[in-house]
Amino acid sequence: MPQPLSLVIAEAALETVPKKLTDHPSVRNHAEKTSRKPSEILLDRSYHHAAMKGMQSDWKRGRPDIVHLALVEALATPLFKKGLLKMYIHTINDKLILIGDNLRIPKSYLRFEGLMIDLFKNKAIKSREGQLLLELRDNITFGDLVKNMITAERIIALSTKGIRTSADQLVFQNVSDSRHCAFVIGGFPKGHFSEDISSLCDCTYSIGSRGLEGHVVIARILYECERALSLTY
Amino acid sequence: MPQPLSLVIAEAALETVPKKLTDHPSVRNHAEKTSRKPSEILLDRSYHHAAMKGMQSDWKRGRPDIVHLALVEALATPLFKKGLLKMYIHTINDKLILIGDNLRIPKSYLRFEGLMIDLFKNKAIKSREGQLLLELRDNITFGDLVKNMITAERIIALSTKGIRTSADQLVFQNVSDSRHCAFVIGGFPKGHFSEDISSLCDCTYSIGSRGLEGHVVIARILYECERALSLTY
Question: pTM (2 decimals)?
Answer without folding.
Answer: 0.95
